[in-house]
Write a structure and sequence with these properties.
The structure is a homodimer of 240-residue chains.
Chain A (H helix, E strand, L loop, with lengths): L4 H14 L8 E2 L2 H7 L4 H13 L3 E4 L3 E4 L6 E4 L15 E9 L2 H7 L6 E11 L2 E11 H4 L17 H6 L7 E10 L2 H7 L6 E11 L2 E11 L3 E8 L5
Helix pairs in contact in A: 1-3, 2-3
Chain A binds a DNA duplex (21 and 21 nucleotides) through helix 3.
Chain lengths: 240, 240
DNA sequence: TCGAATTTGTGCGTATGTATC
DNA sequence: GGATACATACGCACAAATTCG
């Protein structure tokens, strides 16, 4: 009996939610009901429910009750061939703004340039239908693209073509991309632009395009973790 | 003054942490100090500190104090060839326990069997050195493996070999795997077993192995998003 | 080695404000 | 308007761990 009471109550409720006994949208017993049911004070019942709130399983509605959260089925976003922009399959518009900038330290490191070097920074918002899905930023070293036809990523004949295609047009062959996937709580600005609830979790996909060993573009794609999952298929025996 | 007291105290402490005024490893004022400093009851001070714990910014050490957490650089975990167990590169032991079970609805759907069908469920904890890194569960339909040499995934000559190899030994050729990556707040049990702060964010990698169109294994891998990122490389022009 | 003080984690009972039904 | 529910807040209490003289 070392496990604290409020955690054991939380365990019990969580179990009932996961078994479907408490269905999404359904009301969890009120805290007076819980305190009677488990013979504890109402404060302990509150603590137990709070654990589930922090796990994102339930949400409280003042005056009404505590409800099992409906989990909108996460939309499966298929991973696109390397170098595509964006790296996941979407059917929608994009908004982009580009500007010259200087590379912050972490970006400079990814691009293999000195911190403060000139870069072209482009901010994207990708839509699927009318819905904003992916927030992104890409950085390209201006030492590479200045005064070429693809200096501005979203202008000219190669606009929206993705870095592999664009770089190819100026004689730079992207041979490899590296991607890392991570996740973290959303920043306030991301919550606002992607229309997310507070304290949402986002998936962050970082991609760097390399020509040989030289990085020629790096980008960061941010999307809601609750609403999306990234999917990929592998054929067994394929050359990787 | 609409923002509750405990959140405003949390804001203040968070700000001091982010400004470096309270450095990593340093002790946050105790709750009696906080309650005097802000003229609130000790319970309110406790609630304020709990918010920061849930954000992973501080951790409590009973009898000692509450300390600003040191944030280790996220470790990059390389994606392994499809079908490996686990799907990321680790250098460490594993603990596994297998048991017969019946398939819950979402698992049944992934395995293409009826809900409640007999499955072999195996729970894993993968270590890197001494540190627990990945929590995993795999499910295999017993209709496929019952009474074969690989019925128990972690026993026999093919123990720890991963599903592709194990299935091959009983004449089942895995031709394809599908993977989806998502993220969410950690469940309390996951936080405990992976030694994470409460309400940490975890990355969830779901993998299903298919022989033709028939699913033969599905698994879920859970790891801390703060401490790890998944990395992959793509050669341009490769056949996918 | 011992004991006193401090600190966290947990738990109880009560109270107030406000939203919902 | 009244009953109910959540969110917040106050004050107290005790166990267990730690710290320090």
């Amino acid at each position: 009996m070392s496990r604290p009471t409020y955690l054991r109550i939380a365990d019990d409720l969580r179990h009932r939610i996961q078994e479907g006994e408490l269905a999404p949208g359904e009301r969890v017993p009120s805290r007076t009901q819980l305190s009677r049911r488990y013979t504890v004070s109402d404060r302990v019942a509150v603590e137990a429910v709070k654990v589930l709130m922090n796990e994102g399983l339930v949400e409280g509605r003042p005056g009404s009750g505590t409800y099992v959260r409906r989990r909108p089925e996460a939309r499966r976003l298929h991973h696109e061939p390397p170098g595509a922009s964006p790296p996941v399959a979407l059917n929608g518009a994009r908004r982009a703004t580009s500007a010259e900038a200087t590379a912050p330290a972490p970006i400079a490191e990814r691009l293999g340039v000195d911190a403060g070097a000139d870069v072209m920074r482009t901010d994207y918002l990708f839509f699927d239908d009318e819905e904003p899905i992916v927030l992104a930023t890409s950085w390209e070293p201006l030492a590479l693209t200045r005064d070429t036809a693809v200096m501005w990523p979203e202008q000219g004949p190669f606009a929206s073509q993705g870095p592999v295609c664009r770089m190819a047009s100026i004689g730079v062959t992207v041979t490899r991309t590296t991607e890392t996937v991570s996740a973290r709580p959303a920043l306030e600005e991301e919550s606002r632009r992607l229309d997310l609830p507070r304290s949402a979790v986002v998936i962050v996909l970082r991609r760097t395009c390399l020509a040989g060993e030289r990085p020629v573009e790096t980008a960061e794609f941010v999307l809601s973790a609750e609403r999306h999952e990234l999917s990929q298929e592998f054929e067994i025996g394929e050359t990787r």
